[in-house]
Design goal:
The structure holds 2 protein chains of 2 kinds.
Chain A: H1 2-27, H2 30-51, H3 57-75, H4 83-98, H5 106-113, H6 120-132, H7 136-143, H8 147-163, H9 173-197, H10 208-221, H11 226-240, E1 246-247, E2 250-251, H12 264-279, H13 285-302, H14 307-320, H15 324-336, H16 340-348, H17 359-371, H18 375-387, H19 392-403
Antiparallel strand pairs in A: 1-2
Helix pairs in contact in A: 1-2, 1-3, 1-4, 1-5, 2-3, 3-4, 5-6, 6-9, 7-8, 9-10, 9-11, 10-11, 11-12, 11-13, 12-13, 13-14, 14-15, 15-16, 15-17, 16-17, 17-18, 18-19
Chain B: E1 2-9, H1 11-15, H2 19-38, E2 42-47, E3 55-58, E4 61-64, E5 73-81, H3 85-94, H4 97-100, E6 102-107
Antiparallel strand pairs in B: 1-5, 1-6, 2-5, 3-4
């Protein structure tokens, strides 16, 4: 009985996105497909423990979803013409899933979620909900909005996809690179959202696992995309250091981290993905960022000095993908390489209007000024960084740095 | 657009802290206020005294503090200028009170004079 429940839950995790992508790609109505699937999963949870899990859980779920979808299509008078298509599509899907050759349309779904017509801010939430089946409340907590607001945004985005008849397709070769970049950007945003809110914040949604799952999925679906591999490598390296980033609630910078807490399996996964990416000979920002992480990690593990190499990687990053974040990180790398003057100059060259409420800028500036023994200015910069921090651990770390001046 | 942050926490917990712990929180609030001012987002803000120093008036009835009918009391406020609710919430998340209490964020109505 417990096994049947577990089968239902495992099927949900593994198949939700596949089933939803399949249904939505054919009905072009994500919301209707979601409703139908939710009902199918609810039915599975109540039936399977009594009857045992079916031989082909996906086929069972499709059959259960079918009734509801057809009812919906019938009810929506304007979509009546679509009904025969839906019936045919589900029949096909059932036949395929019995034969274990069920088409994976998740790539199309990923491209829809990061479609240029979809608002930038809702792309990641849409992906988390449609591909992974996460609920709006969980997504909302990671993005610091209320569950109701998040639901509203998701509903609006799905309506737009249905009404604008945005097609479920893999973009053609010409369009593939920029569209894939948008998909990767949305996945990285999920990883970042988990990173910010995680670490014990109450009700905080840590989405790092989900983002890793999506990144692995994209590398499976687009095996020749070097940047997808680069992103997977980057996230693997960052995730590998998760347990070492905190000690007793306090933030620990990479140079002070206990490397025995690093996850060797994830570091290996990062090396593997970055190696594959390099063989495709198409460098990009995620690969460079992954190479930077790799340099940090191998520097700590081998004792070799990789600091100058890291600065050169940041030079490249700022050139090919300029952003405030990259410029600040480059300054931090200069600081680590014992070049505080160059670090401060790099920070000074950033447009002042863009950094008034940018926490990493002020934290890095404070450290650069501290290294130059400009204590009064450093203390002020530390205060600004503390005031802009949203985590107790970060505030405590900066307070301690300020006291050490 | 202006937003008011009403900071709620257990005032007795704060008053039971050592002076050093209290000063740490005060320091965090000073840093937060400073960040607001530097970003030209600060309109107003202040801590409030313990509710035992307060009074409540309803009609002609006056009630003395402390107000123990809820576990958390309003302990301070900020009024922040932000372009929308999302931007206001970004600020509220940085407010130290979000880490140990809760913050109610409300748009302030703009009444033309």
């Amino acid at each position: 009985m417990i096994d049947a429940r577990r089968t239902a839950e495992e099927t949900a995790r593994a198949s939700y996105g596949r089933l939803l992508a399949y249904l939505a790609a054919r009905t072009r109505d994500i919301a209707a497909a979601e409703d139908a699937l939710a009902e199918a999963f609810a039915a599975a949870l109540s039936h399977w423990p009594l009857t045992g899990a079916p031989a082909s859980p996906e086929a069972w779920l499709l059959t259960a979803a079918r009734r509801k979808l057809i009812d919906n299509a019938r009810r929506a008078a304007t979509r009546r013409d679509a009904e025969p298509d839906i019936v045919r599509a589900i029949d096909e899907a059932e036949a395929m899933s019995r034969e274990d050759r069920f088409v994976d349309d998740r790539l199309k779904l990923l491209f829809i979620c990061a479609h240029p017509a979809i608002d930038f801010g809702v792309r990641t939430p849409l992906m988390l909900q449609t591909v992974l089946g996460l609920d709006a409340a969980r997504i909302a907590s990671a993005f610091l909005v209320s569950p109701a607001t998040m639901s509203q945004r998701l509903v609006r985005a799905k309506r737009k996809i249905a009404e604008a008849r945005i097609s479920f397709e893999t973009p053609d070769a010409d369009d593939l690179a920029p569209r894939a970049e948008a998909v990767l950007g949305a996945i990285y945003a999920a990883f970042g959202a988990g990173y910010d809110v995680g670490d014990g914040a109450e009700g905080g949604g840590d989405l790092a696992d989900e983002a890793m799952f999506l990144a692995r999925l994209v590398t499976d679906l687009l095996p020749d995309d070097s940047e997808a591999l680069g992103l997977l490598a980057l996230m693997s390296y960052v995730e590998a250091r998760r347990d070492a980033r905190r000690a007793g609630g306090a933030y620990v910078p990479i140079d002070d981290q206990d490397t025995s807490l690093w996850n060797a399996r994830l570091i290996e996964a990062g090396d593997d993905a970055l190696g594959k990416a390099a063989r495709l000979r198409a460098p990009g920002r995620y690969q460079i960022e992954a190479a930077i992480q790799s340099a940090h990690i191998s520097g700590r593990l081998s004792g070799e000095d990789t600091r100058a190499a890291t600065v050169r990687l940041y030079d490249r990053l700022v050139r090919i993908a300029p952003s405030i974040g990259a410029e600040i990180a480059r300054a931090a790398a200069l600081l680590r390489a014992d070049e505080p003057c160059a670090a401060l100059a790099a920070l000074d060259s950033i447009d002042a209007a863009r950094i008034t409420d940018h926490q990493p800028y002020w934290a890095t500036r404070a450290h650069a000024l501290a290294a130059l023994r400009r204590c009064a200015a450093a203390a002020e910069a530390f205060d600004r960084a503390i005031g802009l921090s949203s985590e107790t651990a970060t505030r405590a770390f900066l307070q301690q740095q300020k006291r050490a001046l | 657009m202006r937003y008011m942050f009403m900071l709620y926490d257990d005032e007795n917990a704060f008053h039971a802290m050592s002076e050093a712990e209290q000063m740490k929180i005060v320091g965090e609030h000073m840093a937060f206020s400073r960040a607001l001012r530097d970003a030209a987002a600060m309109v107003d803000g202040a801590p409030l005294d313990h509710s035992r120093a307060g009074r409540r008036i309803r009609g002609d009835k006056i009630e003395d503090g402390p107000f123990t009918d809820s576990k958390e009391q309003i302990g301070g406020y900020y009024v922040v200028e932000a372009k929308d609710l999302d931007a206001a919430l970004d600020w509220a998340a940085r407010c130290p009170s979000a880490s140990y209490g809760r913050i109610e964020v409300r748009p302030v109505w703009n009444i033309p004079e």
